[in-house]
Design a protein that fits this description.
OB fold (Dihydrolipoamide Acetyltransferase, E2P); 17 strands; mainly beta; 305 residues; 39% strand
């Protein structure tokens, strides 16, 4: 299967730069149906996208800007939001003008090829690269190839619960995801299965250590503090603590048979820190079944694909 990547991933590749280098190379890309990437510099009042090309002027007519624009199933914000970002396209026509070559381009055709040769062939459990495009309270939208967008629901981002996807992701972030299924023809994704089981995460810590964490929820019986995206521990109640604060915590005990980590809060403080780097335990291949829970805990927390 040809590898189709989120927009921006091939821009700096020597082959892509070659096709951008001259009218002759762009003509070659047109002849062979090559998908090329360049930066969109402007969207005019007709919602045509103008593309940065050193060898001439590039334009993606509105209806060629994305799958569904012509039919009205995709809103024009999908075009406006691409300004100053990299877009993929196929060269459909080269016109000679007094100001130099005019390259007529189609992002829609690049997306249709990606849909037919990649997205339509994806199966449940496939692990794919993706790029975060925007965040909503209910989940993260990600580019899974050529600007085709899919959703990771907030409860599928990590085992440790978050209040908003921005607690875990940022726009433009490169991530990995797992194909969960299809909803009305659209791919749905999950993410938490790539972040390790309870035991895999717990093995990174030891009783007696003082480590960093993030307060995720405050309950009458204690404070839940995230040590890793798929691992949280419980500390005794403490006044003045609220979700989102950074914390330093002493690890009192790790109990695999109960899937519990007992903590003592050393300090808490406000933090506006950027989401941390994601530690993936799996980055490729295919999942049939993922078991988060330990063998001895007496309950099964499982994802099946």
């Amino acid at each position: 299967m040809k590898r189709y990547l989120p927009e921006g991933k091939i821009f700096n590749d020597p082959e892509n730069q070659y096709y951008l280098s001259s009218p002759e190379a762009m003509s070659e890309a047109m002849t062979h149906g090559i998908t090329v990437e360049a930066r969109a510099r402007m969207c005019d009042n007709a919602h045509d996208l103008y593309i940065d090309l050193e060898c001439g002027t590039g334009v993606i007519p509105r209806e060629e800007g994305a799958i569904g624009i012509k039919e009205g199933t995709t809103k024009d914000i999908a075009l406006l939001s691409r300004v100053n970002k990299t877009v993929c396209f196929k060269v459909t026509e080269i016109k000679d003008t007094p100001d130099g070559p005019l390259f007529v381009l189609s992002r829609r055709k690049a997306q249709e090829e990606c849909m037919e040769n990649f997205v339509a062939l994806l199966e449940n459990g496939d692990i794919i690269p993706a790029k975060v495009t925007h965040l909503e309270t209910f989940g993260a939208f990600v580019d899974i190839g050529c600007g085709i967008v899919s959703l990771i629901p907030i409860d599928a981002i990590s085992v440790s619960r978050i209040s908003h996807p921005c607690d875990r992701f940022f726009n433009g972030q490169d991530i990995f995801a797992v194909v969960k299924g299809r909803d009305s023809g659209r791919i749905t994704l999950t993410h938490k299965e790539l972040l390790g089981t309870w035991l895999e995460n717990a093995e990174q810590f030891a009783p007696g250590e003082t480590v960093s964490g993030i307060v995720r929820s405050v309950e009458p019986y204690g404070v839940f503090i995230e040590l890793a995206p798929n691992l949280a521990g419980l500390a005794e109640p403490r006044e003045g603590v609220y979700p989102g604060q950074a914390a330093s915590v002493y690890i009192k005990a790790i109990i695999p048979e109960k899937m519990k980590v007992k903590l003592i809060i050393v300090d808490v403080f406000d933090s506006s820190g950027f989401p941390g780097k994601i530690n993936y335990f799996i980055k490729s291949g295919k999942l049939d079944k993922w078991v988060y829970s330990t063998d001895s805990c007496g309950k099964d927390i499982v994802s099946e694909f």
